[in-house]
Design goal:
The protein contains 12 helices and 21 strands. By secondary structure, it is an alpha/beta fold. It folds into 3 domains: 119 residues, no CATH class; 131 residues, NAD(P)-binding Rossmann-like Domain (Rossmann fold), CATH 3.40.50.720; 167 residues, Dihydrodipicolinate Reductase, domain 2. It has an 8-stranded mixed sheet with strand order 8-9-10-5-4-11-12-13. Helix 1 crosses helix 2 and helix 9 crosses helix 10.
Length: 481
């Protein structure tokens, strides 16, 4: 047998194992509300090749590829346990087991590592929480996709309605079509039908009521059977408490804004300050995509090295508030063609750091350049540190943060030398540290942070909504503090 034959045989063996993983992962998700992860990446509803690629990607984080032959025993061990709703990272189970020297069997180690989710310790399944989307643009449709994707077990968050201004001619059909196909993020994973008689979009069995209104104070959501819902305003039309309070109509319990909040509206970055949300807070903001991208790594660097001052320069993809071709615009430069120019503009991300990370006293400045790409941006974070360090130390630290810290869902890490912006379309992390571009000289560090300013941000919004709704399930093994 040739070397090539050996490689192909090995590939087919791993394909077979990955194929046998799919029904186990699906059953755990549907029947026990267990989300199986691999280094913070969900394996639910993934194909054979996607499962294998996720295992291979582990080499970017842990330094070596993770094999399905290593993780399958832990997945099988989970099926023998009386598990409650939780997220279980089989990549972390394999990694921590490898470092454990007690001689435990895989079954014994797994039972110990996830003990908080079993037997008398397990939490009960919670009733689903209604969600309403106010607006159905770029972020709104991606949030809809995520909510439908996560509806799996029938628990958690349930998308009940979207509120939009009615357009002319086949409005609901056109909106369903935009949900079904996206030029950047591809096809919707599932089936979508439309019931024009009742103004409903049915996506993977989820009935979504389309409510037509251009005034939030006129909608009675209880008329549609919606109760105590979380309304996600992705229009950005209102950003202060007075404006957002208009959404608190019958049937709405909380309002979450997908733009920086003004005044006393809390700006929440999941992973950083989501635990500061007061239970009785009814209005909050998820800040901006750039704020979500820079605050988690800024927090990580401040905790380890201290930060005296910093500057963030964002190279940002163009957005819908710019003109496709030169035309009048209220802003000085955004009227020039987004597809043909680099456009210098402002960013509020630097000033928003103080609201999300008040313990950081260092001054942070910022500016932004819009460039002719439709999605994925990069933040260049230049920091003056309190102590000198080396590039190797910083990279080892950030790699570990992305792997095993409480920020591992926010911070990703990549060492591929040929990575470009389109490689990060669909990333679920708030930002991705580019190891090859990182620069450190004594007490100066420059981090290059990629982020999918549409999808990665939408994932952060969902995490905040899960947290305030009480359906954010614990992760095992617990990340290192």
């Amino acid at each position: 047998m040739t070397v090539n034959d050996d490689s192909f045989t090995n590939w087919m063996h791993r394909e077979e194992i990955a194929e046998s993983m799919i029904p186990i992962i699906g059953k755990l998700h549907r029947e026990q509300d267990v989300n199986v992860l691999l280094h913070s990446r969900s394996l639910v509803n993934k194909s054979v090749v996607s499962i294998l690629k996720t295992h291979r990607f582990a080499r970017q984080i842990a330094g070596e590829e993770l094999s399905v032959t290593e993780t399958m025993p832990f997945l099988k061990a989970l099926t023998t346990l009386d598990l409650g709703p939780s997220q279980i990272d089989i990549g972390m189970l394999a990694a921590t087991y490898r470092a454990d020297g007690r001689g435990l069997s895989v079954e014994e180690f797994t039972a110990e590592a996830v003990a908080g989710a079993t037997g008398d310790n397990k939490i009960e399944r919670r009733a689903s929480r209604d969600v309403v989307l106010y607006g159905f643009g770029r972020i709104g449709r991606l949030i809809a996709r995520l909510l439908i994707e996560k509806a799996g077990s029938g628990n958690g968050l349930r998308l009940r309605a979207i509120v939009v201004r009615k357009g002319s001619g086949q409005d609901i059909v056109k909106r369903a079509s935009l949900l079904r196909r996206d030029s950047i993020h591809g096809q919707f994973q599932g089936t979508i039908t439309v019931d024009e008689a009742t103004n409903k979009i049915i996506a993977n069995g989820n009935e979504i009521q389309v409510i037509y209104s251009d005034d939030p104070t006129t909608v009675d959501y209880t008329a549609y059977g919606i109760k105590d819902a979380i309304l996600i305003d992705n229009t950005g039309r209102w950003r202060d408490r007075e404006g957002l309070t208009k959404h608190l109509q019958p049937g709405i319990g909380k309002v979450v804004l997908t733009a920086p909040g003004k005044g006393d509206v809390p700006n929440i970055v999941h992973g950083v300050n989501h635990d500061t949300v007061k239970p009785d807070e009814r209005i909050l903001s998820c800040a901006s995509c750039t704020t979500n991208a820079i605050v988690p790594p800024l927090k990580a660097m401040a905790e380890e090295y201290g930060v005296l001052r910093g500057h963030v320069e964002t190279v940002h993809s163009y957005t819908n508030d710019q003109n496709l071709l030169d035309n009048y615009h209220g802003s000085d430069r955004r009227g020039r063609s987004a597809a043909l120019n680099m456009v210098i503009t402002e960013t509020g991300a630097a000033s928003a750091v103080a609201k999300a990370l008040p313990e950081l006293k260092a001054p942070i400045t910022g500016s932004s350049i819009r460039v002719p790409v439709p999605d994925v941006s990069i933040a260049i974070l230049s920091l003056r540190l309190e102590r000198e360090t080396t590039r190797e130390e910083v990279l080892d630290y950030l790699r570990n943060v992305s792997l095993a810290s409480p920020l591992k869902r926010q911070i990703d890490f990549i060492s591929a030398p040929d990575a470009v912006s389109s490689d990060f379309i669909g990333s679920r992390h708030a930002s991705i540290v580019d190891a090859g571009a990182t620069k450190v000289d004594g007490d100066n560090a420059i981090l290059y942070l990629w982020y999918d300013n549409e999808f990665g941000y939408s994932c952060q919004v969902i995490r905040v909504v899960q947290h305030v709704s009480g359906v954010e399930y614990p992760t095992y093994p617990a990340p290192a503090v």
